[in-house]
Design brief:
alpha/beta, TIM Barrel, eight-stranded parallel sheet, about 20% strand, globular
Length: about 240
């Protein structure tokens, strides 16, 4: 099975997506420059990362550390790396120091392990607090009722910066059905900013994927995580 995508194909898809991003921004009076694409590269093998980078994409997202490490080692300084999957505490040692952003901070034990590792390396890790706005049992993330207490606790950790918030919407063919999820995350961003807590900047919103990124942008997304619509492997004749 092919796990390859060419630069030309990515460039074509990228141009189409950029146009749709521009239109979404125009509908809400935003600048297209406010929105950054994270290319979710779990679909492709290491050599394809070079094609994606050559196409002009600079943010790479991975959700499994065992798949991400070979890609990171091959292209480490050529991209900004995002860890976007559920992170087990025993994998933190492999993520901290490599990934610029962790999108899936969702429990205190994970925060404590990130703080411990980052302290040892004398670095500050930019994390996105994952909130389960939709309430789906199949999705990770903090319950909204637990957000305030969690943020107040992590604000005391000097090596973690809550750079933003992240959520995942239910899968649907109708983007309008999940608008409330993205709007809910933006409302949390506004609420947390008002607290002026140390190490809690929440300037970013990581929300929207291949099927719903346009409505996410309309609701304030600054990072959209795009996989299949952007870097799905090409069909290769045998």
């Amino acid at each position: 099975m092919s796990r390859w995508v060419s630069q030309a194909t990515v460039e074509k898809r990228y141009a189409q997506i950029e146009k749709r991003i521009e239109q979404a921004c125009e509908r809400t009076g935003r600048s297209k420059e406010e929105v950054k694409i994270v290319a979710v590269t779990k679909y492709v093998d290491t050599p394809a990362i070079g094609e994606i980078l050559e196409a002009g994409l600079g943010h790479i997202g991975e959700n499994r550390i065992q798949d991400a490490l070979p890609k990171y080692e091959a292209y480490r300084d050529q991209a900004i790396w995002h860890y976007i999957g559920h992170l087990q505490t025993n994998k933190v040692k492999d993520v901290v120091g490599r990934f610029t952003y962790i999108h899936s901070l969702d429990r205190l034990s994970l925060a404590e392990e990130i703080e411990k590792r980052a302290s040892m390396m004398d670095i500050v890790v930019s994390c996105f607090l994952q909130i389960n706005i939709s309430g789906e049992k199949t999705k990770y993330g903090l319950h909204p009722d637990d957000v305030l207490a969690f943020v107040k606790e992590t604000s005391n950790m000097k090596h973690i910066r809550i750079a933003g918030l992240m959520t995942m919407a239910p899968y649907t063919d109708n983007q309008e059905e999940v608008r409330y999820v993205f709007r809910g995350l933006r409302e949390w961003q506004e609420r947390l900013k008002e607290l002026h807590l140390p190490h809690v900047t929440v300037e970013e919103l990581s929300m929207g994927m291949s099927g719903d990124y346009e409505v996410a942008i309309e609701e304030g997304a600054t990072f959209v995580r795009l996989g299949s619509v952007l870097v799905e492997p090409e069909e290769v004749e045998a």
